[in-house]
Design goal:
Elements lengths: L13 E5 L6 E2 L4 H13 L3 E5 L2 H46 L5 H24 L9 H5 L6 H5 L5 E4 L6 E4 L6 H4 L2
Antiparallel strand pairs: 1-2, 1-3, 4-5
Helix pairs in contact: 2-3
């Protein structure tokens, strides 16, 4: 068992590095890693920090969410600019094919309908793709009993009692039989 030098009942701190100029937050994979890379991160402009209380952990979680949202928005804007160029070149090629005299009438109708449907679908998927990202500390969020309330209600009630079949004092299901006698 590792010696932590923490008061009994306190949280293990979450170690992280924060760059105040860019707002970036880096979480090392382990605490040991944090100590090893501390000089390199300091050289890059990051400051070593620890979140030790639930309030500090919540603040850190919100900072990470804000940073991830900002980075995601920038990436989405960049991708959208590239996609606009590609879509316009494809549209231009299809339009030139559509107005060509050698194109069959049913192919013209197909290209026209394809271009209309493509724009409708693009608008729909663009609305759907609004950065559905959740960044959170699972231990912090999943420790709340309100999150598991539904799953607790579906678990059958267990009690210690004497089995009517084998007569031993064991953990029982809802019936009067223990797990061994009930077959599971």
């Amino acid at each position: 068992m590792a010696v932590t030098y923490r008061t009994l009942g306190t949280l293990q701190p979450i170690t992280y590095f924060e760059n105040y100029t860019t707002g970036e937050i880096a979480l090392p994979p382990t605490d040991e890693t944090a100590y090893h890379i501390k000089p390199e991160m300091a050289r890059r402009g990051f400051e070593y920090k620890e979140a030790t209380t639930l309030r500090e952990i919540d603040k850190l979680q919100h900072k990470i969410q804000d940073w991830e949202y900002k980075v995601g928005q920038q990436a989405q804007e960049h991708d959208e600019q590239l996609a606009i160029k590609v879509r316009s070149s494809v549209r231009q090629r299809l339009m030139s094919r559509m107005v060509s005299g050698s194109t069959h009438p049913w192919e013209r109708d197909f290209i026209k309908n394809y271009l209309m449907l493509r724009e409708e679908k693009r608008d729909k998927w663009q609305k759907e793709f609004n950065l559905h990202r959740d960044c959170y500390f699972s231990l912090r969020e999943n420790d709340n009993l309100n999150h598991i309330k539904d799953s607790v209600e579906s678990v059958p009630e267990m009690k210690d009692d004497t089995c009517v079949k084998c007569g031993q004092f064991r953990r029982m299901k809802d019936s009067k039989l223990c797990f061994t006698c009930a077959g599971g």
